[in-house]
Amino acid sequence: MLGNFTTTHPSHQPRDYVKKDRATEKESCMSLNLLLAFLWREWRDSPQMKSFFLHKMNSEFAELMRGKAASKLIEQITIQELSLGTSLTVITGATVMKIGTKDPLEVPQELDIALDREYSGGCHMAIQVDLVFNKSVYLAVKLVSLQGRARIQLSRHPLTHWSFAFYEIDISRENNEISFGLTLSKEIREDALGKTIVIETIVVDSPSYTAGVIAKDILVAVRWTQD
């Protein structure tokens, strides 16, 4: 019958986790990765999937256009090309960092999960930016590699919501230059969006060279959170 509500309780295994006042052991998530890879192969090229991402990106651009600085320079942003890449992010480990309840019989009010992620799928997007003084700019961005620890938080207070963000991780310039086959300018510019560094040289047949990166391209490290 409609209108009847029953109290929910966690099953036996989650109850045991709740009793531990510490983070859980790191999990490999291999079965989850295989499941997501299978679903991604089935859904990646579907009209519904591309429509979802286009709608999401257009919403982000519309919010950007509402800013005072952008509205004075930009008339319109048009997505010319969108590729979702060849693969999904691989979750190399997951740890439950916090369970927001001390009563094993209650469903948690807050949940924090740390995910170690690696991405090399090569998703890319090309946009055309129409400026107010009758000029246009064409910009293409390709995500070659993304690695780090991310945080997913689910909470019921003050209302039910979720958020996603990356943990702050110190990045070794030397290790990244060797891994990707490039050298970076020593000048780093930083603003509200993140850090930008000019690529000075590229090693032939390196991962960066294979991905189409060339000297004088700009490497952007973006601060990004999703609520």
Describe this structure in words.
By secondary structure, this protein is α+β, with helices and mostly antiparallel strands. The protein has helices at residues 12-18, 30-43, 47-65, 68-73, 173-180, 207-210, and strands spanning 74-83, 90-99, 110-119, 124-131, 136-142, 146-155, 161-166, 182-190, 194-202, 218-222, 225-226. A hairpin with a 3-residue loop joins β8 (182-190) and β9 (194-202). The longest helix has 19 residues, at 47-65. The two termini are 35 Å apart. Residues 170-178 have low confidence and may be disordered. Residues 13-22 have a biased composition (Basic and acidic residues). Residues 27-168 form the PDZD8 N-terminal domain. One of its GO terms (biological process) is mitochondrial calcium ion homeostasis.
Defining key terms:
5-stranded antiparallel beta sheet; 26% helix; alpha+beta; 11 strands; 3-stranded antiparallel beta sheet; PDZD8_N; PDZD8; 38% strand; PDZ domain-containing protein 8; globular; 227 residues
